[in-house]
Amino acid sequence: MVSSSHEAMHRIFQEDPGVFARTFRTLGLPFPEPVAVSLMPTDLTEIQPLERRVDTLLRIDAAEGDSYLLAVEAQGKKDRGKPGSWAYYVAHLYAKYRLPPLLLVTCQDRATAEWAAETVAIGPTTWPTLSLRPLVLGPHNVPVFTDPDAAARDIPLATLSAITHGKDPNAGAILKALAAALQTVDDDTAMIFAELTELGLGSAPAAQIWRDLMSVDLSFFRSETSERLRSEGRAEGRAEGRAEDILRILSKRGVAVSEQVRERIVSCGDLDVLSDWLDRSLTAEVAEDLFAAAEA
């Protein structure tokens, strides 16, 4: 069964594929910044009834004109069968797309990361036919973000840091920095990376720290002001919908609606008043009958 932690460890590259190049530049690997990224089908199944799926597959078009496939696999523990599957993925992708494939494995503990980074030689010892060399991200090489300002400058990478260092004794400081950084971006972006962080932490003790931060911290998407604005937005949406229903009913019944009446209906934000008008629209002979009680 695929865990929520597993999902978050590769989904973050779908949210911001550039985090890949930025991370490896800090390790001295000069991957160029992407200029275009395409989400590719992850199904690598062939005609035979054997299903194989890579976690995330991206086509990266770099500034220098080079293009390659980035296959991202999240690995939670050592698995002797995985290198064979990874070799299949790489060979199949090259045969199918004729683009050089790059395998990236993300891990949350150092032991698994070191195992995944080992070069696997496939073939006779005297002449290996294929060598598998994944790039690996884990707590041993993903930078730690404990400064909110630094985290705010690269929230996707700070999120990846929080997930990969979820078992670190310093996880609380990392998560506090990310929580503060999320206050600097728009609601939708913050919610995406807040959710990815919670999913990525899984059942680790740090997950409770994150939930506490999200419930008691004065982050903007939990603030009283934000909740009030959301409530107002929902009420405004219901009022608009009810006004549209009134106009639709009048139109279906063949009742003419002047521009003045239309403006009065659509500009009304009182749901109780609109509900009364909605009831009257079912029997009104002229549009002005909607307002008869208010003007009596």
Quick structural summary:
With 296 residues, the chain is of the alpha/beta class. The protein has 13 helices and seven strands. The model is unreliable at 218-226 (pLDDT under 50).
How does this structure look, described?
The model is unreliable at 218-226 (pLDDT under 50). The strands form two sheets. Strands 1-2-3-4-7 form a five-stranded mixed β-sheet, with helices on both faces. It is 51% helix and 12% strand. The chain has 296 residues and is an alpha/beta fold. The radius of gyration is 27 Å and the shape is elongated. It has three domains: 1-142; 149-222, no CATH class; 232-295.
C-alpha geometry: elongated
Q: What is the CA–CA distance across the termini? A: 66 Å
Structural class, please?
Answer: alpha/beta
Q: How much beta, percentage-wise?
A: 5-15%
Overall pLDDT level: 79
**DSSP summary, beta strand count:** 7
Helix content: 40-55%
For the largest beta sheet, what order do the strands appear in spatially?
A: 1-2-3-4-7
Q: What's the total helix number?
A: 13
Radius of gyration based on Cα positions: 27 Å
**Total tally of structural domains:** 3
Give, in order, the helices and strands: HHEEEHEHEEEHHHHHHHHH
Largest sheet: 5 strands, mixed
